[in-house]
Amino acid sequence: MATETELKLLIEPAAMERLSRHSLLCHATGQAARLLHNTYYDTAALDLARAKVALRVRRQGERFIQTLKTRGQSIDGLHQRGEWEWDLTSEHLDLSLLEADIWPAELIAPDQLALIPVFTTDFTRRLWWLTFEGAEIEVALDLGEVVCDCGDGRHLTDPISELELELKSGPADALFALAHRLAEQAELQPGDISKAQRGYRLFSQCSQHSMDCRGDA
């Protein structure tokens, strides 16, 4: 298991290009933009969400990655939680990877849960890696949207426009120091709501709309 420590910041889409020209990023190791498609799974009753668990499959080019994230905390945009990743041969979940020692005790076994796709996140990511104040940090600019298919012809969406600073090694305080430097180039605001939380919010809105329509029938 790895403990994911990242600082999530909100940024206006129009400011992204300006931020990418910051001197720290100009001298960092970078990567061309890439498209990421993520499908999140849960039960219709959102049992995983209630247990603060996120389970997704990411398509990144020809690569498929299954990720499990467990209960953590978020303070002033700093997110810390357990994370496991596995490479897959297809886009389908492999529940056999979710062994009992990593699966939250409050949930029944994953193969006994009726897991369904509940929403997707689709975004373009630009990446840089740099060393800053004794820390190795991954810098990501994400632009796209969260999408929930309501199943009745409607789709709800929520825009993604974020800067993520992920700590690879070193002191967590370096994330805040780097954010302060990058904010010289563009306005940044702490983001305490993850992409997954926003997707669950859309799914709940879809479910509520369906219940209201049945009630009016």
Automatic annotation (TrEMBL):
InterPro entries: CYTH-like_dom_sf, CYTH_domain, YgiF
Gene3D superfamilies in the cross-refs: Hypothetical Protein Pfu-838710-001
Pfam families: CYTH
Residues annotated as domain CYTH: 2-206
MF (Gene Ontology): inorganic triphosphate phosphatase activity; metal ion binding
UniProt name for this protein: CYTH domain-containing protein
Organism: Marinobacterium iners DSM 11526
